[in-house]
Design a protein that fits this description.
single chain, 272 residues, alpha+beta, two-stranded antiparallel sheet, 10 helices, 7 strands, binds flavin-adenine dinucleotide
Length: 272
């Protein structure tokens, strides 16, 4: 088992296990056209082709299992990704420890006017201090209430499943999480995006480092064709074609000859 990557104030991502590697992906892909493990083209070219064309099932041959500790409000966003398997600590079974997430001052932001789900500029340091104090005192008070309820105010023990109802969303929880590489990349594309909340984005960044070490060619293709690529609407494509109508290419389009051909075909330009 690997060392944990620290995330936020008390959280972490720890790699537990992986199944499969880039060879498993290309082996599975080559079965498609009945050529077994014969190397008809290099692995990098094939993986890039799969990513570019959305031929994703070979990526499902690889799986990642991690142990994650995150605030409950992050876990609520996380578990919306239904294509993973998970097992979370039970607040019915265990007394949950007193660990709460407290945002750094520069993470306490004004409500964005453009994005109703997000923040904009950090608030002033003095307001941020007040918010931090209120959050901290609130969490400690909630935890004190939790302990008091557990002890039934000295009369009788009260069930943990009931007592936990007073705990706040900032309390840390833990889970084991397992997902195949195709769905993991989908998770990362959504949660590395600047629109994702900062507190889940930092977990996605930690997982991205693990993926980069595990399957570097897949990661490179993912960044090129998914993460930093952008799908355009029909109307947007019309504008792009008009703008580039007289462009004949200057050799600056990067990629294999096939990729360059596909680019020129997409924007209906003459290849230089
Ligand atoms: C920035 C951001 C803001 C968000 N805001 C909100 C919000 O305000 N409220 C809210 O409720 N959620 C919100 N979400 C969650 C979001 O709507 C998705 O539920 C979440 O991102 C999981 O995406 P997914 O369904 O593609 O992933 P997964 O559940 O992992 O599914 C992966 C893919 O499998 C397929 N799939 C899975 N299940 C089904 C199914 N039942 N039927 C058909 N196809 C399926 C789909 O192709 C799907 O894309 C937000 C997410 C992000 C990233």
């Amino acid at each position: 088992m690997s060392d944990a990557i620290k995330v936020l104030d008390h959280g972490f991502v720890r790699l537990v296990d992986t199944m499969g590697d880039e060879q498993a992906i290309v082996d599975a892909a080559r079965v498609s056209y009945q050529q077994g493990t014969q190397k008809t083209r290099n692995n990098r070219g094939l993986i890039r082709y799969l990513m570019r064309r959305g031929h994703t099932s070979p990526l499902e041959m690889c799986e990642l299992k991690i142990h994650v500790k995150m605030p409950i409000f992050v876990a609520r966003q996380w578990i919306r990704h239904r294509t993973a398997s998970l097992n979370e600590v039970s607040g019915r079974y265990s007394v949950l420890p007193s660990e709460f997430y407290l945002p750094e001052k520069d993470c306490i932001k004004m409500q964005s006017k453009q994005n109703k789900q997000g923040g904009s500029e950090p608030v002033s340091s003095s307001i941020a201090s007040v918010v931090q104090d209120v959050m901290k005192e609130g969490a400690l008070q909630n935890y004190q209430d939790y302990e008091n309820i557990l002890q039934g105010y000295g009369v009788c023990e009260i069930a943990r499943e009931t007592a936990r109802m007073v705990l706040p969303l900032s309390l840390y929880t833990e889970m084991y999480w397992k997902i195949d590489l195709h769905n993991l990349l989908h998770f990362l594309r959504l949660r590395l995006d600047s629109h994702a909340q900062y507190e889940i984005r930092v977990y996605a960044e930690a997982i991205a480092k693990i993926v980069q070490d595990w399957v570097p060619i897949v990661w490179e293709a993912f960044v090129d064709y998914k993460l930093e690529a952008h799908p355009f609407s029909r109307q947007e494509m019309d504008v792009i074609r008009r703008v580039f109508a007289s462009y004949e290419g200057d050799g600056s389009v990067q990629g294999t000859p096939r990729e360059v051909r596909e680019f020129f075909a997409a924007v209906a330009l003459k290849e230089s």
